[in-house]
Amino acid sequence: MAGICPACGIAYQKWLDRQAQNQDQQPKQADDQSSSFTVAESVSLSQRIKALAFYVPENVEPLGFWGRVFLLGVFFIWGWSFILGGISWESIGGSFLHNVILPFHEFGHVLFSPFGRFMAILGGSLFQVLMPLGLMLAFLIKQRDAFGASIMLWWSGQSFIDISPYIADAPYRAIPLIRGMGEEAHDWGNLLTMTNSMDMAMPLARMSFGIGSLLMLMGCAWGAYVLYLQKGKLSH
User: Fold this and answer.
1) In terms of pTM, does the model score above 0.70?
2) CA triplet 166, 99, 173: central angle to 5 degrees?
3) What is the pLDDT of residues 91-117, one digit of tens each?
4) Closest C-alpha among 94, 104, 145 to residue 127
C-alpha cells in the first residue's frame, strides 16, 4: 500500500506530512515574532519621544511656572509681529534677533567650508536654522526641559523667516552686507546663480517664510501644552 513500509508496516507517509506541516508553520511563527518585535520597538520609540516632548517634573514651582507663562506670551506676540510683517528686510533685518543670529550664520560658512564652495556659501543659512534645533535636542535630552525646547523650535522658525528676505533679494543684491562686502558676497545671489535658478528666488523666499511661520506657531502651541501639563503639578 502506498505510504506504508513493506518491511515493517509503518505508515511513514503520515509522519512525512506532519513534518512538512511543522516546517510550514515555523517561518510563519518567526515572521509573527519579528513583526511583533518591530511593532513593540516602534511603540517604545514613540513613547520615549512623547515622554521627552511632554516631560513634567513632579513638583513645579509657581514662580517659575508663571514666569514661563509670561515668556510664552512674549514669544507668541513677537512671533506674530514677524509673521504679519511679511518678507520685509526692514522689519526682519532690523530686529534685535537678527544681530543675535548673525554670528551663527557667519560661523556656518566656516563650518561647512571643507565640503566645497557651494556648501560653504549655503552653510551660513543652513547653520542658523539647524543650531536652534540642536539646542532643542539638548533641552529635551540633557536638561529634560520641554518648555525650553519649544522656545528653541520657535527660534528655528524665526531663523527661517530671517533668511527669507535674503533669498528674495538674490536677483537684486541690494541688501547691505556686513563688513562692507560687495555684491559678489551675496550668499543667495551666488547660490541661485550657481544652480541656474534665479527665477526661484521669490518662491524659495516664500517657502522659507512659510516654514518659519509654521515652526514658530508649532513652538508656541507645544510650549502652551507643556505649561498646561505643568499647571497640574504646581506645588502649594
Assistant:
1) yes
2) 25
3) 898 888 999 999 999 999 999 999 999
4) 104
